[in-house]
Design a protein that fits this description.
Strand content: 15-25%
Number of helices: 10
CATH class of the largest domain: Alpha Beta
Order of helices and strands: HHEHEEEEHEHEEEHEEEHEEHEHEEH
Number of strands: 17
Distance between the termini: 28 Å
Number of domains: 2
Radius of gyration: 24 Å
CATH superfamily of the largest domain: Zn peptidases
Shape: elongated
Structural class: alpha+beta
CATH architecture of the largest domain: 3-Layer(aba) Sandwich
CATH topology of the largest domain: Aminopeptidase
Length: 383
């Protein structure tokens, strides 16, 4: 019942909207109309205004909130939430979709395509369209199209969870073969450490200075980076400091992140990072200004839970593998789980994401829509 040409055409149309993070106004207006035409009650929350107040990079864009839709069911069963985010990474201005004779869809090569996450949105819309056209039995359907997912899920962090009734969710936002789902994801901590020293002439009197770069380097040398265990990573990603080569540096700024599938392990690594810098700064007569933020929090959904069982049964019924794994990438689902919604993240036909080589295919879009349709019309096999 999925119409391949229709979902491909809708995907291509959505690609043409410029929807980089904090620039989602046009796509949100388009999707609100699409949902209304499908019979949804549609609301937009105030996340855009709240983000504009606290995010310096928001700029002069018209604030855009998370888009929520509710479609009343025609059978007595628990509601289900489907979600895919509206924003894209850069470069995403002036995107155009190009389809070759084999159904591979790319950008023109100078931008990303936006399959992350327009492929997910397209699948959800097509599935609901088929349900409406064929009057298929379905529970109450909720959709949430968040803003600012690419900035650590800042939009879904501010969503109105009191409005959402579903206790199960499927987030269409994963690379890989259709029929793959992520059931565990990490805590992600980001940090900024400003090491303070004292300037002096590097040639005449270096002994009068306190070299902030030296402090930072010695602190970093004490840390284990990369994989610190089988489920935890630490990375120093950016270092900047100093004024010029003949001045002892009085400041060095270090940026990094920590990821772990276990929240307590992430916090343990952060304690080690912080202690290394504070102790080294103190020992060398400098100081530190330290900022850190827990961007997302780890979760794990068990294979025995209904949200996973539904996914596997639907996959089996339409010829997909129905496999699960963990991911060390975050998504809106981290915030869903933290707010009491047991969700998993499913593959939806996005490949080589965050690069100009990003692509999807007509076949993947169709399969993803079939999966969404199955999830919305599922009947439990459990006796």
């Amino acid at each position: 019942m999925i119409q391949r040409s229709r979902i491909v055409n809708q995907f291509k149309k959505m690609v043409e909207f410029d929807s980089e993070t904090y620039q989602e106004r046009e796509i949100a207006d388009y999707l609100a109309k699409e949902l209304e035409q499908l019979g949804f009650q549609v609301w937009e929350d105030d996340a855009g205004f709240r983000l504009k107040e606290k995010i310096p990079s928001y700029g002069g864009a018209v604030p855009t909130g998370n888009l929520y839709g509710f479609l009343k069911g025609n059978k007595d069963s628990e509601p289900v939430l489907l979600s895919a985010h509206m924003d894209t990474v850069k470069p995403g201005i002036g995107k155009r979709a190009v389809e070759d004779e084999n159904g591979k869809i790319t950008s023109e090569g100078d931008t990303i395509l936006g399959a992350d996450d327009l492929s997910g949105i397209a699948a959800i819309l097509e599935a609901v369209r088929v349900i409406r056209e064929n009057n298929l039995p379905h529970p109450d359907i909720e959709v949430l199209f968040p803003v600012a997912e690419e900035n650590y899920g800042k939009g879904s962090q501010l969503a109105d969870y009191i409005r959402i009734k579903s206790k199960q969710a499927y987030v269409f936002d994963l690379s890989g073969e259709i029929g793959l789902a992520a059931t565990a994801a990490p805590t992600l901590l980001s940090f900024e450490i400003k090491v303070k020293g004292r300037t002096a002439h590097a040639g005449f009197c270096p002994q009068l200075g306190i070299n902030a770069i030296e402090i930072a380097a010695k602190a970093i040398a004490q840390l284990k980076q990369g994989w610190v265990d089988e489920e935890t990573t630490v990375n120093i990603g950016k270092i900047s400091g100093g004024k010029q080569t003949n001045i002892v540096s009085d400041e060095c700024v270090v940026l990094g992140e920590i990821r772990s599938l276990k929240d307590h392990k992430a916090m343990e690594q952060w304690s080690k990072v912080r202690a290394a810098f504070e102790e080294m700064a103190s020992g060398l007569k400098g100081s530190c200004e330290i900022l850190f933020e827990k961007q997302i929090e780890a979760y794990e959904i068990g294979d025995e839970e209904e949200v996973v069982r539904r996914f596997k049964e639907v996959c089996a019924s339409i010829g997909l593998k129905g496999t699960t794994q963990y991911t060390l990438g975050g998504s809106d689902n981290n915030h869903f789980v933290r707010n009491g919604i047991r969700g998993i993240v499913v593959s939806c036909g996005m490949n080589e994401v965050h690069t100009p080589e990003e692509y999807t295919t007509a076949e993947e879009l169709e399969r993803s829509a079939r999966l969404a349709l199955g999830l919305l019309t599922w009947e439990s096999n459990k006796k």
